[in-house]
Write a structure and sequence with these properties.
With 608 residues, this protein is of the alpha+beta class. 34% of the residues lie in helices and 24% in strands. The chain folds into four domains: 68 residues, Elongation Factor Tu (Ef-tu), domain 3, CATH 2.40.30; 70 residues, OB fold (Dihydrolipoamide Acetyltransferase, E2P); 211 residues, Rossmann fold (3-Layer(aba) Sandwich); 142 residues, Bovine Mitochondrial F1-ATPase, ATP Synthase Beta Chain, Chain D, domain3, CATH 1.10.1140. The radius of gyration is 28 Å and the shape is globular. The termini are far apart. 46% of the residues are buried. About 1% of the residues have low confidence. Bound molecules: adenosine-5'-diphosphate and magnesium ion.
């Protein structure tokens, strides 16, 4: 029987949830068109004669008795060239095309396909006619944007013999060749479809031991994330979630970015749709959009679409992973998505568990983050790809003790805790070093350091030993920061001058680390991105300083001798110096020299 076009009727409506009857063989997850206007919805529950549909569009004006048409299809993503450099709504409709067709407000029942049907792409085959292929095999490429070669692959679970394959200019719909399968000859196209709620298959999961290099010091050195890892970045309003996600999108060493915006404020998504396209890829100068897939849930869209958009985004991320790319996906913010779950659950009169959220909230959160990972993809030629998932969380009132934050932390390996006090004092990124963690830290740091090169070609052996030293320096710096926070609370009571000198040195070093290392302005010309070697040298300079000054203090050199050194101020500012690594090296030398001089003055020699 033809699956499309089975017809039923609406029984009742509650916000974005509609109950209907009259289609006996309707399936869970099936897409239906609801009402005279054909609003798009998805079947989320079936009970006896009745089934419940979550509608992805505004339902006002809808009436019981209006028709419901089942499509026989799941919520699928169209995958193919044209995903990048495009802004889509929560269920994959291009905003620009909607604007052109329907004006500034998204009207309902709009059916515009994700991938443009009229645009032609130049397809270059890489597979041979006569060759046997199976799901995942690359059969050709097309240049999707200046930055990304789109690999055309055989869809998963398909195999056969190529009986035709042509070079030429084709739309995503045009046949580019033919495949002889057990069930006959089927056309090959540049586009494929995939149900968004189902993870795309791969050959094997690989260890996530390659660091994602972000150029953000507090992340790379203190709380690093691996390619294929997961991170949560919770923070109250204005603590810097969006700026951080933009920084990660621009600077991280992934080739493709998937950005899902669920607006916190009314017009924030309009900002995403206008701001994001202005960002430039710093390495090539091309618009960042040329390697970005952007989903924007505008505020005039109903909540249910936000629920779907998360799956849409991750499916697209997996699709580029399957081409062999490193992909990062950012969701800003997942709290808005969880609220959509809560709203729909409320409409279904399900039993709420915590703060009104349904009992399946943790399962849904887990399902999303579990789709991260580094994998060996299906198909030939052999290739690996990764999906790194970074989710912003915006807990109400900035209080992390709430269900979405708590459950997100259960399923993510890295926690970047944004802190309102830091943001208020304009310490950005406002990642609180005492509260944050990374489960991958030490392993990643040594792997990362092994990839360092020495720009000047000198001191080869010194760089070579870095990977052993790096985790140690990080621990040392974190220990100083930890201790200083305890000392600070004592100093508040008795005054800093009453502290013993070794404790005052801890405060001094911690201050240098906070100012000169952790703080990093996103909008600074030089410091927006900090290259790996520079990060390491800055850290080494500050921990060396601490070690050497400690020896002096132990030998009764008064702290004032050290705290009055002009080099201390320079250490805080050198990150922004145009002189880069050479300037840092020079300052390091100068610090050594000054501390040695003080040592000589007080007849201390050891270790300085
Ligand atoms: N890394 C940063 N460097 C400089 N300024 C920042 C940084 N992060 C945040 N800010 C400042 O804080 C403001 C709020 O940040 P935003 O990312 O919009 O917060 P959120 O998304 O958490 O509400 C920004 O407009 C910017 O002025
Ligand atoms: Mg924001």
């Amino acid at each position: 029987m033809e699956k499309h076009g089975r017809k039923g009727d609406i029984s009742w409506i509650s916000g974005s949830v509609v109950a209907a009857h009259g289609i006996n063989d309707v399936e869970m997850g099936e897409i239906v068109e609801v009402g005279e206007e054909g609003l798009i919805g998805e079947v989320i529950r079936i009970k006896d004669e009745e089934f419940i549909v979550e509608i992805y569009e505004n339902t006002s004006g809808l009436k019981p008795g209006e028709p419901v048409i089942a499509s026989g299809k799941r919520l699928v993503a169209e995958l193919g060239p044209g995903l990048l450099n495009n802004i889509l709504d929560g269920i994959g409709r291009p905003l620009e095309a909607i604007l052109k067709q329907k004006g500034p407000f998204i009207t309902r029942g709009v059916k515009i396909s994700t991938l443009p049907r009229n645009k032609k792409w130049h397809f270059k085959p890489t597979a041979m006619v006569g060759g046997l292929v199976e799901g995942g095999d690359i059969i050709g490429t097309t240049k999707e944007t200046n930055m990304i070669d789109h690999k055309i692959t055989v869809p998963p679970e398909t195999n056969g013999k190529i009986v035709a394959l042509e070079e030429g200019d084709f739309t995503v719909d045009d046949p580019i060749g033919k495949l002889e399968t057990v069930s006959g000859i089927v056309p090959l196209r540049m586009m494929q479809e995939w149900p968004v709620r189902l993870p795309r298959p791969f050959q094997a999961r690989l260890a996530s031991d390659e660091p994602l290099v972000t150029g953000q010091r507090v992340i790379d050195v203190f709380f690093p994330i691996s390619k294929g890892g997961t991170a949560a970045i919770p923070g109250g309003f204005g603590t810097g979630k969006t700026v951080m996600l933009h920084q990660l999108a621009r600077w991280s060493n992934t080739q493709v970015v998937v950005y899902i915006g669920c607006g916190e404020r009314g017009n924030e998504m309009c900002e995403v749709a206008t701001d994001f396209p202005k960002l430039k890829d710093p390495r090539t100068g091309y618009p960042l959009m040329e390697r970005t897939f952007l989903l924007a849930n505008t505020s005039n869209m109903p909540v249910a679409a936000r629920e779907a958009s998360i799956y849409y985004g991750i499916t697209v991320a997996e699709y580029y992973r399957d081409q062999g790319y490193d992909v990062s996906i950012m969701a800003d913010s997942t709290s808005r998505w969880a609220e959509a779950l809560r709203e729909v659950s409320g409409r279904l009169e399900e039993m709420p568990v915590e703060s009104g959220y349904p009992a399946y909230l943790p399962d849904r959160v887990a399902e999303f983050y579990e789709r991260a990972g580094r994998v060996r993809t299906l198909g030939k030629p052999q290739r690996d790809g990764s999906v790194t998932v970074i989710g912003a969380v915006s807990p109400p009132g900035g209080d992390f003790n709430e269900p979405v934050t708590i459950h997100t932390l259960r399923f993510t390996g890295v926690f970047w805790a944004l802190d309102a006090d830091l943001a208020y004092s304009r310490h950005f990124p406002a990642i609180q070093w005492l509260k944050s963690y990374s489960l991958y830290a030490n392993r990643l740091l040594s792997a990362w350091a092994q990839s360092f090169s020495d720009y000047s070609g000198q001191l080869q052996s010194w760089w070579k030993d870095f990977h052993q030293l790096f985790p140690e320096l990080r621990d040392k710096a974190l220990a100083v920061l930890n201790e200083s926070s305890e000392i600070e609370s004592i100093a508040k009571i008795i005054g800093e001058n009453a502290l013993p000198d070794d404790q005052r040195l801890i405060l001094l070093t911690a201050d240098t680390l906070k100012e000169g290392f952790l703080r990093q302005f996103a909008f600074d010309k030089v410091d927006s991105f900090c290259e790996p070697e520079k990060q390491f040298l800055l850290l080494k300079m500050m921990t060396d300083f601490h070690d050497q000054a400690s020896v002096l203090i132990k030998n009764r050199v008064p702290i004032i001798k050290i705290s009055s050194l002009p080099e201390l101020q320079k250490m805080k500012r050198i990150k922004q110096d145009e002189g880069g690594i050479a300037a840092i090296r020079q300052l390091m030398e100068q610090c050594h020299k000054e501390l040695r001089r003080i040592g000589e003055e007080y007849r201390v020699s050891s270790g300085v």
